[in-house]
Write a structure and sequence with these properties.
- This protein is α/β, with parallel strands linked by helices and 331 residues long.
- It folds into 3 domains: 12-131, no CATH class; 141-179, no CATH class; 181-214 and 227-295 and 302-327, no CATH class.
- It is 31% helix and 18% strand.
- The chain has helices at residues 12-18, 25-32, 91-98, 102-129, 144-152, 156-159, 162-170, 182-193, 251-256, 262-274; strands at residues 48-52, 63-68, 73-77, 197-200, 205-208, 234-237, 241-249, 280-287, 304-305, 308-309, 319-327.
- Helix 5 (144-152) packs across helix 7 (162-170).
- 18% of the residues are buried.
Length: 331
Amino acid sequence: MRAERWWQEASVIDDLMTTPTAYEFIQATRLLRHVPDSFKTQYWANDFKFHSSLNLNFPVSEIETLKLDNEHIHFTNLIVGLTGMQGALPYTYSHKIKHSTRQQKVETINFLGLFNHKLTAQYVDASLTYHLPVRYEIEQENDYLDILHALNGYVSSQQEQSELDDYFAEFSGLMQGQNNTAYALRTMLNCIFKADFQIKEFIKEKFKLEDTQKTSLDGLSTSLLGINTFCGESIRQIDGKIEIQIGPLSRTDYLNFLPKQKMSEKLKKILSTWCSPTLMVDLRLILKKEDIQSLCLNSSSQLGLAQGAFLMPKLAEHNAETCYALLGDMQ
């Protein structure tokens, strides 16, 4: 006897049961065949009942219906079977069954269902056999992580950051070829931290040259203006620094992103592992206007200026004053 509901709210299974037409048939079957309380010794298809559709219209999805009872998961698909638009039998069979009497229709569907079920189960097995397997469905170990990490050049044994291994595997396709774009970085951070991240590129930096870096007329080196020499004592650079803006944040999340705090250190690890070692990163925290509180000077207070407390009148807007160097010379 199968439990009526074994999945969690807001999970992938929950979304599949709510909107089955949004999923591919093979994808849905692979998700539902791994039920926590299922017996490993029995054939996986024993938990399913596969039916083919009688609909002769062009299929807009691969799944027509998905229902769950106490013993089986009932699938009506639109891509494989004996009847329907993609069925093996001629269309006239589907048309006759569809327009027959109710009793005859039910009896015919149940009879064909015996063959439809076996045919569909073999189709699923063949699809998993002759396509690149998902390793977690075959092995208990996480050997598949190395395959996914190879897409973005991440080597788990060199990094020794087991807490980040799953992140770099999940986003390996997005990070493939070290594609360090603002979109890829923002997408990854939004999913990991469940917050609104914005990436501001081309932050201007000004560097003043030391005397040893200046050109002198001593005849020991060739200096050509516009090639290896320029006029001035400082350099402006716009491709070596970015600013990451997070928020609006609640007060709890805001405090966790302050320097040396849990979320700040986690973000620092991710950026230092993925991004260029020479990249400088400023982190700007945006505190919700509802969470701006007055400062109480006592021994238990952990707030400071620009770290939860601000010298300012009460404004009807989010506060974005907190900004510090996460990666770079001033961290």
